[in-house]
Amino acid sequence: MTLTRTLLGIESSCDDTAAAVVRLKDGKGRVLSSIVASQTELHAAFGGVVPEIAARAHTEKLDTSIQSALDAAQLGFGDLDAIAVTAGPGLIGGVVAGVMCAKGLSAATGLPLIGVNHLAGHALTPRLTDGLAFPYLMLLVSGGHCQFLIAHSATRFERLGGTIDDAPGEAFDKTAKLLGLPQPGGPAVEDAATRGDPERFRFPRPLLDRAGCDMSFSGLKTALLRARDARISDCGGLTVTDRDDLCAGFQRAVRDVLIEKSRRALQQYLEMSPAAPTLAVAGGVAANTAIRTGLETLCDSLGVAFTAPPLRLCTDNAAMIAWAGIELLTAQAVDPATLTARPRWPLDDRAPVLIGSGKKGAKA
Amino acid sequence: MSVPTILAFDTSAAHCAAALLRAGTIVASAREEMAKGQAERLMPLLEEILAAGGVAWRDLDALAVGIGPGNFTGIRISVACARGLALGLGKPAIGVSTLEAQAFGRIGDTLSLVDARRDQAYAQRFHDGSAQSAPVVGDRASFANGIESCIAPLADTLARIAATRLGTAQPRPAPLYIRAADAAPPRDPAPVILEE
Domain named Gcp-like: which ranges (chain A) (predicted)? Predict the structure, then answer.
């Protein structure tokens, strides 16, 4: 196959405004440019992402980010084959801004427009970075999501389980907030944990006693709050050692849950007898060394290959959206119905609902 | 470009409105009332307006877009779309506020008002259509004798105002929110860190 395709990708579903150009050539994907305009500073004072602030920033950063991505790739619209945009799931204000900007671009340039599921973007990234063959097991673990998916094809994902409440990245952020550490919480908590004693505070491992791959992290946050408050009422505050030990105990609990649930997900996946069994992990939490090392050790013991895309393609970015667009074009699975911005959009609509089973449907 | 071709649109309130200005005349105009669904309706409506005026996207000299004040999401739908269109066409998008549009063509002093809910209004003073103050939000009762509509349809007026600005450098259109984002810093303070 010598088919060449060049796509612009646009992503605005959380607190990063991103645009990228990706090219498929000789069967391989290459990132020609990837711009990520972070809003971290805008949200810092609020201890979390504020949807209205995010939507405001996206609206005024999308076009300039797209221009930057084209400039960095040294391409114009005439060099593109299509535009891919995140159409959900995510914070709806930002998703709407991205979809409307993309609709405007598409009308102006005549380029076809492809709506991409943000989760599919993450789940297909290992094919861009490592050329992974289907089926592979995907652990998507970030500030907004946590789920195990078997990627059967560019359009078929089977969810084995996931969090029934908070995502681990969110738990790291909340832990940092409770302990007076800076945001984003992942790197700050990990850094403190390297100096801490993980045995001093024993935190619960929710749902480990239950079969299956579902997880829960909100109780862990409450346990951390109780342990913190007990120290504060005894001593009037926390010492740095207390803080480091709390971080280490918390991180150990998250790691233990993720590793054990990964073991179960891998067992289910291996029943399919895949030719080249592989676990791929994506999302910001994949950058945590303790968790990553634990997953690598687990994979080694089971004879499964382990891969994690580089961090810049693991956290939110638009290259994964452009790549997912290329995959959908290749699979001839472009659906105009995906062009409506959707706050909720589960990748596997046959699996039981994990979160948000109200009248608006499953969240993810 | 003495007689520019301009496509104008607005979704800053419970409507989807568009107009096409060509050779000094509004050749097509539409306004559909809707509380939601503007994100899905806007592009098809713009295509219809262009078709009615016999104009292709590449024939446009500029876009005019309503920047509010009004419904935050509605404003963003149009502004994001206008910015995408402008980038793709290589033509300017010119943002015009509803407050200014309502004062356009009025002689003398005008207090322009837009409903801000919660018994409040967005307000700005104009003289012969020129702004005399910055836009503000305040209690509706504090504003007397204000006007709350345009002389011509809103989208038509946006196009005509944009035509007067074409040819001079214009900033990219940005929403006119006036109200700050509803967000409060966390209530629980960080713990005291003790010396060891």
Answer: 31-323
| Residue at B191 is within a domain | no
Task: Give the pair of three-digit tokens for residue A179.
Answer: 């302990």
CATH of the domain at B80: 3.30.420.40
pTM above threshold 0.80: yes
Answer whether B84 sits within 8 Å of A108, measured CB to CB: yes
Cis peptide before A184 (omega within 30 of 0): yes
CATH number at residue A335: 3.30.420.40
Domain total of chain A: 2
DSSP string for A238-285: EEHHHHHHHHHHHHHHHHHHHHHHHHHHHHHHHTT--SS-EEEEESGG
Q: A334 near A328, Cβ under 8 Å?
A: yes
Instruction: Yes or no: say if A172 and A185 are a contact pair by the CB < 8 Å rule.
Output: yes
Same domain, A283 and A322: no
Nearest-angstrom CA–CA distance, B158 and B151: 12
pLDDT tens digit string along A93-140?
A: 999 999 999 999 999 999 999 999 999 999 999 999 999 999 999 999
Q: Which of B16, B81, B176 has the most A C-beta neighbours within 10 Å, making it the best mutation to test the interface with A?
A: B81
Q: The domain containing residue A22 runs over which residues? A: 5-131+312-360
For residue B87, which of A66, A273, A11, A278 has the smallest C-alpha distance?
A66
Residue found under tokens 């005026």? B53
Domain containing B45 equals: 5-98+151-165
| pLDDT per position as a tens digit, A25-72 | 999 999 999 999 999 889 888 877 899 999 999 999 999 999 999 999
Q: Is A218 helix (H, G, I), strand (E, B) or coil?
A: helix
Binding site, annotated residues of A: 118, 122, 140-144, 173, 186, 190, 288, 316
Residues A50 and A155 in one domain: no
